[in-house]
Every structure is written in C-alpha cells, then in structure tokens.
TrEMBL record:
Homodimer. This is Adenine phosphoribosyltransferase. Belongs to the purine/pyrimidine phosphoribosyltransferase family. Residues 33-168 form the Phosphoribosyltransferase domain. It comes from Candidatus Taenaricola geysiri.
Length: 176
C-alpha cells in the first residue's frame, strides 16, 4: 500500500476540537477501530511491513497503543510489552520521566520485559511532539533492546516529533 493509500484511512479518523483542553484537536481513532474493514486494513499493513523483520517484542504505550500493539503482536507471533503510567505495573520497573507542555509525566516498563539484543518494535497510536516515544526509546535501549522501528497510525508532522526520534527509524500511516 502506498503512502497515499494509507492517508485514505484518514477519513476514518474523527477530529474532536478542544479535547482534552482548549486548542488541541484530538484525533479520535475509535471511528477507525469500529469499522472492521478500516481496522483490518491498518493492521494488515503494519503486519506486512514487519512480518519478515524477526521482531521478538512489540512494545506499546498506554493506552491506545495497546490496541494496535496487542493485535499486531498476535499477528506477528511475538511477545507484547506494555509501557504504563507510573504506579500501574505490579512488578519491578524501570521508570523514565519526560517533559510535557506543563510539568512532567513518568512511564514505566517491567525490568524483565526485554532481553539484551532483542529486536523490538515500538507502537503507539499517534506521534505528536515525540516526547513520549523518545522517552520510551531510551527505556528500551537502557534495557539492551534493539529498536527496529517506531510505528504510529497517525503522525502530526507539523509538531516535528521525528526530530526527537532522529536516531531511530520512524513509520507512520496517516499524516497531518
Ligand atoms: P507526544 O509525546 O507529544 O508525541 O504525544 C504522543 C501521545 O499523546 C500519544 O500517546 C497520543 O496518544 C497522545 N496525543 C498527543 N496529541 C494528540 C492528539 N492531537 N490527538 C490524540 N492523541 C494525542
């Protein structure tokens, strides 16, 4: 599927102005998820891209990343690793804090989630400023994971998130 064909999936994404706060146009993916053809097309395209890459873990970011990450890990026949907000994972974790527009946020991953040298695919629903994904890349690398690529359903290109991920390969399906 070409980039133009991926962008055709944009018609399934709903814009919600001023959510969760004024000035943000929230990209609502539930309208894509509920459409069996659109959800399948998005997942099949991701599967096709990574099926021969010998990925051993899909690492996905809470919470919308879990939807694509979980389904993709099942299709790829590899393991799934959740990255969660601070305090949610029950066992020992590595944590990383990163800057938000106002304040900071902390994400965690289980210390035994990734073995040194494992090929990891990072998955989230949307790349905005890249702060979240670049923090997770640092976590994965600290654990010795080898990041094959960071994959997103949506990229807000005007926020230049790729610059924060410049040491990694980045793939996105729908761009704005
Ligand atoms: P960032 O760290 O700025 O790249 O933000 C990425 C994270 O915030 C992702 O997990 C997204 O789910 C969420 N996010 C940021 N901006 C939006 C938006 N406009 N619509 C929906 N989700 C967003």
């Amino acid at each position: 599927m070409s980039q133009e064909n991926f962008n055709e999936l944009a018609k399934y994404i709903r814009d919600i102005p001023d959510f969760p706060k004024k000035g943000i146009i929230f990209k609502d993916i539930t309208t894509l998820l509920k459409d069996k053809e659109a959800f399948k097309r998005a997942l099949d395209a991701l599967y096709k891209r990574y099926k021969d890459k010998d990925i051993s873990k899909v690492v996905a970011i809470e919470s919308r990343g879990f939807i694509f990450g979980g389904a993709l890990a099942y299709k790829l026949g590899c393991g799934f690793v959740p990255v969660r907000k601070k305090g949610k994972l029950p066992s020992q974790t590595h944590a990383i804090s990163y800057d938000l527009e106002y304040g900071t946020d902390t994400l965690e991953i289980h210390t035994d989630a990734i073995e040194t040298g494992e090929k990891v695919l990072l998955v989230d629903d949307l790349l905005a400023t890249g702060g979240t994904a670049s923090a997770v890349c640092r976590l994965i690398e600290k654990m010795g994971g080898d990041i094959t690529e960071a994959a997103f359903l949506i990229e807000l290109v005007f926020l230049h998130g790729r610059e924060k991920l410049k040491d990694h390969k980045v793939f996105s399906m729908i761009t704005y």
